[in-house]
Give the backbone structure.
Amino acid sequence: NGAGKTTLLKTIMGILKTKSGQIEFDDNELTSLPSEIRANMFIGYMPEDRRLIPSMTSEENIMIPVWAVNIDDWEKRLKWIYKIIPEANELKYRPSTSLSGGQQKLIALSRALMVGKKLKHAVSILEEYCLLIFHFFFNLACATLKAFRPYLIFV
């Protein structure tokens, strides 16, 4: 809608240069730091276009931050991600090229959560925050439909 969300997020990550003002994270002024240093500060970013590596499996795409910034507790984080996004666990061995658009977004979200260190193990910047809301309500709707299945007629 032209409000500047993507521009702001890309600026926070160092993809775009700041024209004026300051951006602070964990008492660090970010605007003078290169993007690779910002990545090492464990800020997760989920771009709108997902940016999955086609030659890798879903789990390998989730693990990219682990390899890039040497995350020590990656096993604990991966287990936590699979707990809150069980679909990511079901997709872990599939090549990213075989995933639907929605599945790719879940894997990109999982990757962003892998790197974040705040907010219960994850601070992640999501361009499509509504994905989380959709995911929650989708699971709720599925559970509700399963509960009422004996009483429903599908046409």
Summary: The chain has seven helices and four strands.
